[in-house]
Design a protein that fits this description.
This protein has 2 domains: 97 residues, no CATH class; 237 residues, Ribonuclease Z/Hydroxyacylglutathione hydrolase-like (Metallo-beta-lactamase, Chain A), CATH 3.60.15. The chain starts with a helix and ends with a strand. By secondary structure, it is an alpha/beta fold. Helix content is 31%, strand content 17%. The strands form 3 sheets. It has a 7-stranded mixed beta sheet with strand order 8-9-10-11-12-13-14, with no helix packed on it. A 6-stranded mixed beta sheet has the order 7-6-5-4-3-15.
Length: 359
């Protein structure tokens, strides 16, 4: 991979500085998360050694992400942070390590405070959540895609608390769920959102045995129908639900959402089926897509992006900690996959935001 030796030297150089803090105070400023004993060694305690190593790396990642936020022209320092994050998260025990849990919670806490404080006057602000979760806020609406509390990572201490999730849900107007898998659909989130009187859009096979199933909106899955979905008396959005699939049979809604500002966002979920190119091939001809949020491992991503022709591409599904190491898609592999794509792209991680302007 390009610049791999540069990444290594950059990391080694940064590690000569005192550890950067993981957590933040109410103003978003870093604070020290724990006392570090400079005289301590870890002989005979490999697990604690790896915990401390994770903390040291994540402190550096946190500071680099702060200094180098998502941008169209990504500097090497930011790429180094993303690749360093991969190395921490590809430890099989990563979701069970306290520094990783603290890192995730601090990222989500920053996101929620920023979400609560952000008013969008033009364009759209995008926040990346866990796995394939995204928030898109325009002047008229806040869209939420595939949000879960992250129990799919298989550690209750990694998942964000219900109170934190509730604050996030309060800021959103509509929830889109692409398919029934636990890293995309969370029954507590759906029930809570419906309880707030807000619409949830999902395939029919999402939580069919639940008491709230009849309150989920099941839009027709067809490439040629635009649904008008009312969010309030003043605001409606257009929604096309493409009949996607994960593998051969699992229904996976691919959403194309158009807001009142005529901004169009396409979220693919776990789309991965060759036969579906029969309609994917026509999306770019039928719609002008502003942002595409594909799964980073989708079938033939180069072809899909060429067919959809978005103005900007932001991938999802990197570092799902519930997956085995070989399918815990790393950022470095996304960089490789995007090399031959001629559309602008941005790689983001948990809790980050980017302000998109159509021009």
């Amino acid at each position: 991979m390009k610049h791999i030796f540069t990444y290594a030297f950059l990391f080694l150089g940064l590690c000569t500085y005192p550890s950067f803090a993981q957590n933040t105070d109410s103003g978003g400023n870093p604070v020290t998360s724990r006392h570090i004993d400079p005289q301590k060694n870890y002989w005979g305690d490999i697990d604690q050694f790896l915990d401390r190593q994770s903390q040291a790396a994540l402190d550096v990642v946190q500071e680099l992400l702060r200094q180098f936020p998502p941008s169209m022209n990504e500097p090497l320092e930011r790429q180094a942070a993303m690749v360093l994050l991969d190395t921490v998260l590809h430890d099989e025990k990563a979701p069970h390590r306290e520094p990783v849990q603290e890192f995730f919670h601090s990222r989500m806490s920053l996101l929620i405070r920023d979400l609560e404080a952000t008013k969008v006057d033009s364009g759209a602000v995008i926040w990346k959540l866990y796995d394939h979760g995204f928030i898109v806020r325009t002047p008229s609406a806040t869209l939420l895609f595939d949000f879960t509390r992250a129990y799919s990572a298989r550690d209750d201490n990694f998942a964000i608390p219900d109170e934190m999730a509730s604050r996030l849900l309060e800021q959103c107007d509509v929830l889109f769920i692409t398919h029934r898998h636990g890293d995309h659909a969370d029954p507590w989130v759906v029930e809570r959102f419906i309880g707030m009187g807000k619409p949830v859009i999902a395939p029919v096979n999402v939580f069919p045995e639940s008491e709230f199933h009849t309150k989920i909106t099941h839009l027709e899955r067809t490439a040629h129908k635009n649904h008008s979905l009312r969010l309030s008396e003043e605001v409606s959005i257009g929604v096309t639900v493409f009949p996607g699939h994960q593998g051969e049979e699992l229904e996976n809604n691919v959403y194309l959402v158009t807001t009142t500002e005529k901004l169009t966002f396409c979220h693919t979920g776990d789309q991965s089926n060759d036969e579906d190119f029969s309609w994917i091939d026509n999306i770019g001809n039928d719609f002008q897509v502003d942002l595409l949020f594909p799964n980073c491992w989708t079938t033939d991503i180069t072809r899909a992006v060429k067919d959809i022709a978005p103005k900007l591409l932001i991938t999802g599904l990197e570092n799902e900690l519930g997956h085995t190491i070989d399918h815990r898609e790393p950022n470095w592999l996304t960089y490789d996959r995007l090399q031959d794509i001629d559309r602008p792209s941005i790689l983001m991680t948990w809790g980050e935001k980017f302000h998109y302007h159509p021009e």
